[in-house]
Amino acid sequence: MGCPVVPTSDVPLQKLGFLTIGVFDGDDPRPGMEALLTQIQLGEELGFDSAWLRHRHLQFGVSSPVAIMAAASQRTSRIELGTAVTPLAWENPLRLAEDLATVDLLSGGRINPGVSVSQPMRWDDVKHALYPDTVEDFTYERVTRFLRMVGGEAVATAGTQGIEVFSDRVQPHSPGLRDRVWYGAGSFRSAAWAAEQRLNLLTSSVLTGAETADFAGVQGAQIEAYREVFPEGRVSQGLVVIPTDTATAAQREKYADYAAARLPRTRQPQGPGKLLFAPDIVGTSEQIAEQLHAHAGFQQVTEVAFALPFSFDHEDYVQILTDMATHLGPALGWSPAQ
């Protein structure tokens, strides 16, 4: 398979997805979770190709995407479901492989696990609760262990013990799941490693190790480096994009204020990790499409998973998703899935 075509204004975007953290009220979580499932159902009805969940541990957002995907798989029939991303430092790779294979089979092969690895956020605060008795490996080896298990390689000795029969590999096994694993990369090093492992590449609105404030240029160069090694790999971009075509005046003001408050952090790399954040893109679908077609990162992909803003109301997400599917997607040449 050759390199995917570049989605310039003359080449249509092939896959449109959205990404959310699924916010909820800590005192009454269920309504927020139900709203999230409703949004995924709406995404399928609107023709989105995929819906992605972002992890939020010890916060008021999705902490168990596998459980949400299991529920969503029974309320939908076509839309792909993914994680962007699962931080493997919080997971036992074998148990995660079992859960993902189970949900993938129940969904009919629609699960796209996105993973990453590094020391957990707020490590000093959580390590005694997360790993009180063990020393864990947070290197790429944790990812390769997970890949071997998802891929069906032997992890134990098959046999019987009394009347119990044991497999040598993770059960259930879902053929094809390994090929749908993505890696969330923010640096040149991680993008290159993902390509070497033949993992699909998730790029987001955050880069690491940035030396300049040119987010689009850095992201575009990372994707080019990935494609040099693994040209047939899938690449998805996940910028925060907020179309306002059918938004009310109050919503437009709310969205503009949200983006303005987050803009200062985009002007230069932040902190010792040199984190570089992309500006949120707010405007009509025509305005957003013009900016995306000029974006060096977007120019390197044929599919996207636009990130929904944090802490908005359900009605806002319905408007944003509807505008994405009915206005922005067509402006990018995308056609809704049937």
TrEMBL record:
Any one GO molecular function term: monooxygenase activity
Gene Ontology cellular component annotations, sorted alphabetically: cytosol
Source superkingdom: Bacteria
Gene3D superfamilies in alphabetical order: Luciferase-like domain
Residue span, Luciferase-like domain: 23-294
Keywords, in A-Z order: Monooxygenase, Oxidoreductase
Transmembrane recorded as keyword: no
Entry keyword annotation includes Iron-sulfur: no
InterPro entries in UniProt: Bact_Lucif_Oxidored (IPR050766), Luciferase-like_dom (IPR011251), Luciferase-like_sf (IPR036661)
The name this protein goes by in its record: Flavin-dependent oxidoreductase, luciferase family (Includes alkanesulfonate monooxygenase SsuD and methylene tetrahydromethanopterin reductase)
Organism field: Klenkia soli
